[in-house]
Design goal:
Distance between the termini: 24 Å
Shape: globular
Strand order of the largest sheet: 1-2
Strand content: under 5%
Radius of gyration: 13 Å
Structural class: mainly alpha
Length: 91
């Protein structure tokens, strides 16, 4: 079970209202990963619970993929650009 950082809890409260909030918290708590990976999953899902599940499953296969997708733009380009760090709290 992962510890959910305060910034992620706040983001989940804003993006997943009502009953979906509790489902989102349970899903994130069930993950065995770092805060960086959790932030990446929540950032990429952008309030869509199905996407939250999708990125959580993707992180179980290879957590580096989700971090890469969250931190880089033009990730299909020859030289992707890092534009954010998931080590930092989510806004």
């Amino acid at each position: 079970m992962s510890e959910i950082p305060d910034d992620v809890r706040a983001r989940l409260s804003r993006e997943y209202p009502g009953e979906t909030h509790f489902e989102a918290i349970r899903l994130v708590e069930s993950l065995e990963c770092s805060a960086r990976v959790i932030r990446s999953i929540v950032y990429l899902a952008a309030g869509d619970f199905e996407q939250l599940e999708r990125f959580a499953r993707a992180s179980e296969i290879d957590w580096r993929d989700v971090v890469f997708w969250a931190e880089y733009e033009d990730y299909l380009a020859e030289e992707p650009r890092r534009v954010r760090s998931m080590e930092e709290p989510l806004p």
